[in-house]
Design goal:
Elements lengths: L6 E2 L7 H4 L3 E3 L5 E9 L6 E6 L8 E6 L4 E4 L5 E4 L4 H5 L7
């Protein structure tokens, strides 16, 4: 997927309503998980990503800060995120507990 033509989100769009269930793609453009919820507001936002599992069962939740992920919309307006991390690197992060 060519993300170069996708529009970055602005900080007012970093909300659960917009980001919940957005897919996250890794370094090799593989889908590594989906955003389950958001912590913080504006540029102080972190996202919690469910990685692995099947249909949410057995998934591990990890927290990523905005310096680890780029949030954007594609040409159809679909919100997604891109990180330079691989799925294995994300899975190795500490599990997030609310």
């Amino acid at each position: 997927m060519d993300h170069s033509k996708h529009t970055p989100l602005n900080s007012t769009e970093y909300t659960n309503a917009i980001l919940n269930d957005a897919p996250i793609y890794g370094a090799d453009d593989e889908k590594i998980g989906t955003i389950s919820h958001v912590h913080g507001v504006g540029t102080a936002t972190d996202v919690v990503v469910d990685v692995g599992g099947f249909l949410g069962i057995g998934a591990k939740s990890v927290q990523l800060s905005l310096d680890q992920i780029k949030l954007m919309r594609d040409e159809a307006g679909v919100v997604h995120g891109v990180t330079t991390w691989t799925k294995e690197q994300i899975k190795d992060l500490p599990e997030h507990h609310d």
